[in-house]
Structure formats: structure tokens, C-alpha cells
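User: Structure with zinc ion, C-alpha cells only please.
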Amino acid sequence: MRPIALILFLFVAVLASAAEETNHFCVVCGKGPLTGRIWISKWGPVCNDCYKLGNHCSLCGLPVREGDGSVKTGDGRFICKFDKPNAVLDLDEAKEVFADVRRELVELFGAGFALNFPDVTVNLFDVDYWSELGRSDGLHKFGFASTRTAAKGVCTHEVVMLSGRLKMELAATAAHEYTHLWINENRPPEHAIATDTVEAICELSAYKLMEARAQPEQLQKILANPYTHGEIKNLVAFEKENGIAAVLNWVKNGTTPTLEAPVAARAVPVKIPSLIFTNAPPALPDVLKLGGLLLDGQSRHVVISGVTFAAGQVKPVPLQNRTLLVHCCDITRDEVTLEVDGAPEKFTLKIGEEKNIP
Ligand SMILES: [Zn+2]
Ligand SMILES: [Zn+2]
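Assistant:
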């Protein structure tokens, strides 16, 4: 299984200009030139009306409205027109992604990584399928692999993956699930492997694939994912030192439930990202972050970790395990100056910047 650690790219950078200086057009509805409040998304300006829309792209957070080129999945998620070309909604395309990944992994890891029973049924499912939906910890399943063993040891494999994800992320899931199938075929029953280690080996495949595809962002995501409780870092370190063949050989011939990584590589703290899935309530942030800056004529507001401030205001900001009392000292065109109870001195944040208050 591969966890869903979908980070919803919240609508962050926000900016408005005075009426006279804008030649912005809304990327959602096309309206413009815009005046007054303008919100800047990763795809460009958004008018204030569209900003208030209730539906958002499940991949990037952009507001969507009917007829704007976005699509809706069977389970009610929206995908904006910008993400649509890279999102996999179609089963044939998902099968292609899986087949490509499988071929690349066998090239990377060697012929021993091919399946003895090569038939794999690939399916795509909507989010409703996953029973974990609605759990507030934000961890859900992106994929699932199963192998059934019939008489005479004949295996039949099945992989199901979540629809409507970006192609590169689906590929990472495909690598993970394919590895489960390989482990199912190759781990002898007497070799019990700890769950986190099994998952970390599957993540290691995704990692090696993304390394081969030169996708540093995906590598970061895999390392930061708390799903394996940090075990992925040990596996990456082990593989670096001993090679992938040693990992695969250990699955087949090892006797211990975990794979020991070199001492120096252990105990690297795992940064846990804020995990937000579209239908689940967002987890509280654990840092102070300038999510938005709104300049509207003379009035200026900022959004600090979800709480809106005008200059001079003092408000509590709830974080994951505590609440900080924050004084918004000053707001300029592109940054905010804050004073926080418990922090030694004032500091500034630009849009998208964050500060960890120990
Ligand atoms: Zn608009
Ligand atoms: Zn989008």
C-alpha cells in the first residue's frame, strides 16, 4: 500500500494592485483587466469573485467553476484546466504508466526484478473506494497491491491506484505497488519482515525510479513522507552503501525482520510535511507561514498560518500542538513583520516563507 500524502497547494500568494496599474485577467473566468482585489495563484491572477468560489482543484487548490475547462471526477473531485493535461483519469493511461514503470524498474534493478507470473491486472479507483477516507490524520491510500496464490504456487496479481493524480506521482505509486508484487512472489514465508521495512523497500523503488527520471521534488516527497516512520531514510542509506541487489537478496534470503542501515545514516530526523487531502480537514500547520498578503487600496491584510491580520493586531494562531500569540507589527507590499510571544526578536516573512518557532 502506498499512502496518500497529497499536499494541497493552498492558494497562497495573494496580491492586489491599485486600479491604474493592472493588466491582469482572471485565469479562471477570463474577466479583466482586473481592478481592486486580485489574487495571484500559481497559474496567474484570479479575480475576487472566482476566489470566493466553493470548489477547488484537488491538485493545486485553484478555484474552479463550470465551463472553465476543469473536470470533475466520479467521486466529486475537481481538476483544473491547468492540471488536467497531466492528470491520469483514464484506465488505459494508468495501465501505460504502470507498464512503463515496470519496464524501467527491471532495467534499473536487473532481470531478477521481473515477475515470475507476469500478468498484473491494473485498475483505477475513485477516492470513495478507500475506506480510510475521512480520517482526520490526512493519511489515505494512493494504491493497493495484492497477490493471490492458487494451486501449485500460481500467483495472480492486482494493483489498484487512485484516479486523478499527476502522472509522475502515479508513476511513484506504480513503482511502490509493483514492488509489493515482487516481494509477494519472492519473500519466503519464513522470512518475516517488519511492516515499515516492507513499505520502505517499496518506497525505495519509487525513490530509485524518480532518481532515474531526475525528479528531485518527488525524491523530497518520498523522503519526507512519514508513512514508513523514517525507515525509508535507512533504506536509501543502505542501498547507497550496498546496492539494490543487496536489498533484494535480503528479501529472498534474509532472516531478520529489519534491514540494518549503516549507523551514521540512522537517526536522521524525518521532516513531517503537513498532509492534507482534499476531502479531509486540513491538519494545523506547525510553523508560522505567510500564506497571503492582500493589498486593497490603502488597507493591508496578511494571512499567517490561516489567521488574518491587519497591521497592529494581536491574535492567537493555533498550530499543531500549541497556540502562539502573534503581533502583526507592520505590513509592506511584500512582507510582514511579526513579533511572537516567546521568540527573542521581531522577524519578517515574505509570501510563502515560514518560520519555525521552537
Ligand atoms: Zn474570475
Ligand atoms: Zn489545479
